[in-house]
Request: fold
Amino acid sequence: MNGQNDAVALFGRIAMSVIFITSGFGKAMGFAGTEHMIESKGVPLPEIAAVIAILIEVGGGLALLLGWKTRWAAVAFVVFLVVITPIFHGFWTMEGAARSANQINFMKNLTILGGFLLLYAFGPGRYSVDGALRRRPFQRQFAAARGAIPAFANRGRPSPDRR
Reply:
């Protein structure tokens, strides 16, 4: 990516993370309600499912925001969305306003899933923890190839400047 695309990737990650971080915190603050809603959909072990949802939304959202382990977070979100979307937004079983609202939410989740697939394919960009960690070794290697490492970093080998 170039600088402009890296900046766009940063803003995209921020925008995508907001919905999950806020939703995860909302689930945590109203844990009993979250558990009840999950139970009402027939999901087994609703307490554990609620904890998993909170961990994925808050933890994955923060990872996404920072750009840390971004591809792993994207995969976790894809799996999460594939599982929860038909369970919680199964609009084909509804009528009227509920059908319309859930169809919109189903399509929203499908769109977000597409964004995570793109994030997995193209990565988080330069302005991320992943990007910073990826650049470090390469930059040292590149600098060494150019002879740009200072003399004190040569670990006892004579510097080309002091022969």
Q: What stands out?
A: The helical segments are 3-29, 31-40, 46-66, 70-88, 96-122, 129-146. The chain has six helices and no strands.
